[in-house]
Structures are given as C-alpha cells and as structure tokens.
Amino acid sequence: MSSMILPSASFETRSEIAGATCALSYTLDVPTIIQSVNDGAGANVHFIGTTRNSFQGKVVTRLEYQAYSKLAIKTMAEIVGTAFENFKPIRCAVHHRLGTVPVGEPSIVVAVSAPHRKEAFRACEFILEEVKRKAQIWKRGKLDIILSYSI
Hints:
Elements: E1 13-17, E2 20-25, H1 30-35, E3 43-50, E4 54-55, E5 58-67, H2 69-86, E6 91-97, E7 99-102, E8 106-114, H3 117-134, E9 137-143
Parallel strand pairs: 2-6
Antiparallel strand pairs: 1-2, 3-8, 4-5, 5-7, 5-9, 6-8
Helix pairs in contact: 2-3
C-alpha cells in the first residue's frame, strides 16, 4: 500500500477590512501588530497569548499550531465583523501563529483601540474567546518525557 502525501492546509494568509486586520502566519511582529491599531483613540487593549511551560502537571516544551487557513481566516474576519457591530467604533488586529511555538513565545495577538476602555476591553475579550471557540485552528502540545529509574 503506498502512502500519499497531502499538501498542508496551514499556510500564511491575511484579510484586511476597514479598521481591521486578521492574519495567520509563522511569525508574529507584536509591536507592529499593536501599532497597527493605534490611531489616537483613548483606549488601547492588547492580549498576547504565549506558550506556557506546563499543562496538567506535565512540562511543555512547545505547541504546534495547524489551521485550515482558508476557512480560519474567513471565520476570524466574521468574528471581527460581529465585534464591529457590537462594540463600535473600534479598530482591531487579530494575528494567530502557525507552526511550532516554543515556551514563552506569542501564539496569538489581539489588539483593539476604541474611544473608551470599556469597549476596548470587551471587544478584545470577545474577539479572543470567539477565535478560540470558532476558528479552524488546532494546537498540539509537545511534552518533555522525563524517565527515571534506579539500578
């Protein structure tokens, strides 16, 4: 039986609409993402999710993210559209990393600016939770296996 190699569905892509950017990429330039929404509004809220070093008591060395990029970027844009309807006026950027993300490095950045802090905080949390819940992005943790035995 021969094995077939399928092309990866994870690839870099971005979607830009007035006042927002959504992106999937293998690197994240956090300062540039944050600056992209800084339009002089009174409130700027940023969430930067990083790979933590443990999960359920086990040491994590890295996370690996895969996505169905075509659908994930569309879903992210729809989430941003809903945020625009519910928390206007805002500007936002939602960037999610693909591939290997070592401990301590960012995997997602959500940046929001609005005239007032309440809208900025609420929009940022809404976008983050909806992306985690709906976007076609999957993560897999890589654990350090520590074996010990005595002679």
